[in-house]
Amino acid sequence: MLPQVIIIGRPNVGKSTLFNRLVGKKLALVDDQPGVTRDRRFGDADLLGLKFTIVDTAGWEDLDPETLPGRMRQQTEASLVGADVALFVIDARAGVTPLDEEIARYLRSSRIPIVLMANKAEGRAGDPGLYDAFALGFGEPVAFSAEHGQGLADLFEALRPHIEGTDDDDDDDDVPPPEGAEEEEEEFDPESVLKLAIVGRPNAGKSTLINKLLGENRLLTGPEAGITRDSIAIDWQWFDPTSEAYRPVRLIDTAGMRKKAQVVEKLEKMSVADARRAIDFAEVVVLLLDATRGLEHQDLKIASLVLEEGRALMIAINKWDVAEDPSALFNGVRAALDEGLAQVRGVPLLAVSARTGKGLDQMLTAAFDIRSAWSKRVPTSALNRWFDDALAANPPPAPGGKRIKLRYITQARTRPPSFVMFGTRLDQLPESYRRYLVNGIRRELGFDAVPIRLTLRSPTNPFAKK
């Protein structure tokens, strides 16, 4: 495990900007308004050759523990457990505030090494705050500008005594790979980490479900809608009761996705865009429904987005423990899905409860199964045997009396399964016949309800006029 460095500070001092600077990419959402970050976010930092895990946290506020800011503070306090060093960040331009002094008192009682950072120290405007920071009792502050990258060498020197000497191997298993990493052409390993994203409308219970799986209050939850803003990836080992073995899972929590017309604030737009990137990074996506609200049009739009991105989709109806007439609800959702998602019939539908844990093991089992189907490759010989049988059972039409010739088919890639069909006059092939072939691939070749890509390709005529 890499050494763990926690970023602590009051709201809007630049913690997420510092996090992005150290990981080398914009993973955390950043905005001018305070309180953007709410959950802990982990990243892989490499500071001039010094490697460690950096943890972004919510802004520290002195409010009732029952309020949302109070619960955010509890999450920040929990992040200090197991940390090797804390970066205590203040705003050099604003100087030392009473809240900074309160945080300093708490950190002194934590017995964790502290590196004091005076952020926004570019130019002369931050000099008074830089001098005031000595009064906090953590020695000389590191003058830094997370926005412009100034002070990296000084931060390196301040962190090195705390990082060197800890167990610093290059085990990157706990760090998500770069977003958008291409893995489609690698040979599929069924025991590899399952990248599982949980998506849905606000307040569907996504964070509560992940907390139940983890067995701890890792993510901030509450009755308020839209608590989650960043997409948070958490590595976890799931005990599979069928195989009686642990299987690796990367759980990805996402912000709630409302109708586009209702998303007007810049921060929410950023959160939704982050959730869409999380879908692109995932292998399997669980769309979480609220049993008290049923299936709504926005749910179908989210499901269509997942399928358009080529990800394996599952639907889970949450809050099953409080559902009214559950049998009718389940059958109604099933019928609506088959009608609204005609391009992929039979998407797995499960009933779960994030509060009680009902159905969560079944959900994980189904997720591993559907990933196997999503990653499957069919030998060309077997594929063309099916192709010949499909053409014999239902020959392609002959528009205008001219026959459409379908010659052969091959699988171009996996994840999602993508096929290329060769023939002549394919521009006149009806969409209904194309759906017939896609449904046959899914049904006869074991691809279940995963998205299928079928590309039509005709040979180039060398004698055609240019």
Automatic annotation (TrEMBL):
One GO molecular-function entry: GTP binding
Keywords associated with the record: GTP-binding, Nucleotide-binding, Repeat, Ribosome biogenesis
Highest taxon, organism lineage: Bacteria
Biological process, per Gene Ontology: ribosome biogenesis
Pfam families linked to this entry: KH_dom-like, MMR_HSR1
PROSITE patterns for this protein: G_ENGA (PS51712)
InterPro entries referenced in this protein's UniProt entry, alphabetically: G_ENGA (IPR031166), GTP-bd (IPR006073), GTPase_Der (IPR016484), KH_dom-like (IPR032859), KH_dom-like_a/b (IPR015946), P-loop_NTPase (IPR027417), Small_GTP-bd (IPR005225)
Binding site for GTP 2: 200-207, 253-257, 318-321
Disordered, as annotated region: 163-188
Residue ranges the record marks as coiled coil: none
Start-end of Acidic residues biased regions: 166-188
Binding positions (GTP 1): 9-16, 56-60, 119-122
Transmembrane segments: none
Chain ranges of the EngA-type G domain: 3-167, 194-375
Similarity field: Belongs to the TRAFAC class TrmE-Era-EngA-EngB-Septin-like GTPase superfamily. EngA (Der) GTPase family.
Its biological purpose: GTPase that plays an essential role in the late steps of ribosome biogenesis.
Assembly and interaction partners: Associates with the 50S ribosomal subunit.
Name of the protein in its database record: GTPase Der
